[in-house]
Design a protein that fits this description.
By secondary structure, the protein is α+β, with helices and mostly antiparallel strands. The protein contains 7 helices and 5 strands; from the N terminus they run H-H-E-H-H-E-H-E-E-E-H-H. The site of ligand 0O2 has 12 residues, from helix 6.
Length: 226
Amino acid sequence: MIKDEVKKLRMNSPESLQFLNNATKFYNLMMMYRCAIREIQTKLEVLDDEFSVENNRNPISFIKTRIKQPNSIYDKLQKMGYEFTTKNIQTYLNDVAGVRIVCAFIDDIYMISDLITQQDDIKVIEIKDYIKNPKSNGYRSYHMIVEIPVFFAKGKTPMRVELQIRTNGMDFWATLEHQLRYKKGIEEMPGYDEISEELLHSARAIIEADNEMQRIKDKIGKFHEI
Ligand code: 0O2
């Protein structure tokens, strides 16, 4: 379809055809990552549904998905010293496809992670547990890089997806902190240190709240066992 557009514009120099060929490959690859996200999302919805029927509550509050923007993909490859090619994207980047799973309780996070790990078509590539080991700025979340096979007309392709599993509180905090982190030159601005300190303080308050909610949930659970 893009090729037809270029023909219409009479842009048939070797350079424009090369550009077009690369653009087509890039958009195909992004489509493949979107399909991988759909596969993972369905698996998560199945687990959530099953759990809610058996336990009368949903462990997953909500799921957010995103495909990394082309400029962020470019910047990341540049930083790593690689050219912006579809081959390099597939080889070196783990987070083009991202799925964020937000849960009510900390133990839901580990349950979801275990249930995903147990699925025999999923290969876990990497785990970073920023809940047991929070980052120095206060960031907490459970990260998994997984590989999932997606069946296309041309055959089965393993696709990598980054999962970030966190509580509502962790998500609330990370979304606000992200706004601070992604403003260029912010570290030199007056008030930056104070805001960082305040964020660290609020991260501690959220740890307390998450732990408290977990304790209360466990107590309520004991009532049901009696
Ligand atoms: P964006 O814009 O959210 O995509 P890697 O991806 O492995 O090369 P890294 O930093 O080793 O890079 O991976 P890590 O630690 O698993 O972090 C990946 C993602 O987690 C980030 O993606 C953020 O989404 C989130 N994250 C990690 N640390 C922080 C943090 O301190 N604060 C917040 N708010 N989010 C964090 P990107 O590509 O950095 O950003």
